[in-house]
């Protein structure tokens, strides 16, 4: 492992950006080696607070083109102030997160049954009349976190491939859909 030291976002700037973040969207809060170890600072404490309050989750992955450098992301899990056409990111009145998750799961299960590609977040939002593609992304991430679906192949150079946990069926990859 190289001697790469972690770098952390400025806590005040991170907090301001997080407050404007839509549900399911993410920010990079640190970069560095695959493990930040026991490094403690104001930025990490802020992210840990959001996680403890169930306002956020974290994930990390390799920085594109870098074998020894990782990006540490914080994902907003609770509704933010983002609005489009007067509709809050929490969805239309009378519809809750679970209902929206079930609708997304039904759409993904239908795609898997038909052997078609997994729809993009934009297509999910449009098909289900969700307020934003970020809302669709958030709901897909919640389904994955709750074990309802499993991400087989992320959407790096084509459509993502997901597996429906209850049936074992998968959406098509680029090769199988053609």
In spatial order, strands of the major sheet run 1-2-4-3
The number of distinct helices, counting runs of at least 4 residues, comes to 6
Shape: globular
CA distance, first residue to last residue = 41 Å
Oligomerization state of this entry?
A: single chain
Are there runs of 5+ residues with pLDDT below 50, and where? 80-94
Strand percentage: 15-25%
Strand elements, count: 8
- Average residue-wise pLDDT: 79
The secondary-structure element order is: EHEHEEEEHHHEEH
Profile the largest sheet: 4 strands, antiparallel
Gyration radius (Cα, Å) is: 18 Å
Q: Please give the share of residues in helix.
A: 25-40%
Structural class from helices and strands? Answer: alpha+beta
Description:
The protein is of the alpha+beta class and 178 residues long. It has 6 helices and 8 strands; from the N terminus they run βαβαββββαααββα. It has helices at 11-20, 42-52, 97-114, 121-127, 133-145, 174-177; strands at residues 7-8, 26-32, 56-62, 70-76, 83-84, 87-88, 149-153, 161-164.
Layout: helices, strands, pairs:
Layout: E1 7-8, H1 11-20, E2 26-32, H2 42-52, E3 56-62, E4 70-76, E5 83-84, E6 87-88, H3 97-114, H4 121-127, H5 133-145, E7 149-153, E8 161-164, H6 174-177
Antiparallel strand pairs: 1-2, 2-4, 3-4, 5-6, 7-8
Helix pairs in contact: 3-5, 4-5
């Amino acid at each position: 492992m190289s001697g790469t030291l972690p770098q952390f976002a400025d806590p005040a700037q991170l907090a301001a950006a997080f407050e404007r973040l839509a549900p399911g969207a993410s920010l990079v809060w640190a970069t560095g080696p695959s493990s930040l170890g026991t490094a403690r600072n104001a930025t990490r404490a802020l992210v840990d607070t959001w996680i403890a309050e169930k306002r956020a989750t974290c994930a990390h992955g390799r920085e594109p083109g870098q074998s020894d450098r990782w990006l540490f992301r914080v994902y907003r899990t609770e509704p933010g102030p983002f609005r489009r056409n007067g509709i809050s990111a929490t969805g239309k009145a009378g519809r809750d997160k679970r209902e929206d998750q079930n609708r997304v799961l039904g759409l993904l299960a239908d795609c898997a049954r038909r052997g078609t590609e997994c729809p993009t977040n934009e297509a999910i939002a449009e098909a289900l009349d969700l307020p934003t593609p970020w809302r669709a992304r958030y709901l897909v991430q919640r389904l994955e976190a709750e074990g309802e679906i499993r991400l087989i192949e992320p959407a790096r150079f084509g459509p993502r491939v997901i597996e429906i946990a209850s049936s074992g069926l998968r959406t098509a990859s680029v090769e199988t859909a053609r």
